[in-house]
Design brief:
The chain is mostly beta strands and 120 residues long. It is built from no helices and 11 strands. Strand 9 and strand 10 form a beta hairpin.
Length: 120
């Protein structure tokens, strides 16, 4: 079982920045990939960004955040970050980190979420 705990959400004005953190604990050696997803009120959960747990150069982003968000990881701290710049009101959502293990195509482990609100 991998446990994930997000932090760093909050209220920010449009154009501002926030950095989300996701700390992984227990059995982290089984992790192959981690990602951030978000869910806005009344909308379905959507993919935001992905990073290969063992190769930080292997990343990809949703088109809506590319160029504004950066995903990174610190393996020594078992932590993945999402740096969010140039935030827009449409970025308002609950953000979740997720972990995928070797051999699985779906993200099996999820954090509890952290809320991000961007005011106009």
């Amino acid at each position: 079982q991998v446990q994930l705990v997000e932090s760093g959400g909050g209220l920010v004005q449009a154009g501002g920045s926030l950095r989300l953190s996701c700390a992984a604990s227990t059995r982290t050696f089984v992790i192959s990939d981690m990602a951030w997803f978000r869910q806005a009120p009344g909308k379905e959960r959507e993919f935001v960004a992905h990073i290969n747990w063992r190769n930080s150069f292997d990343t990809n982003y949703a088109g809506s955040v590319k160029g504004r968000f950066t995903i990174s990881r610190d393996n020594a701290k078992n932590t993945v970050y999402l740096q969010m710049n140039s935030l827009k009101p449409e970025d308002t959502a609950d953000y979740y980190c997720a972990a995928r293990t070797f051999g699985l195509s779906e993200y099996k482990y999820w954090g509890q979420g952290t809320q991000v609100t961007v005011s106009s």
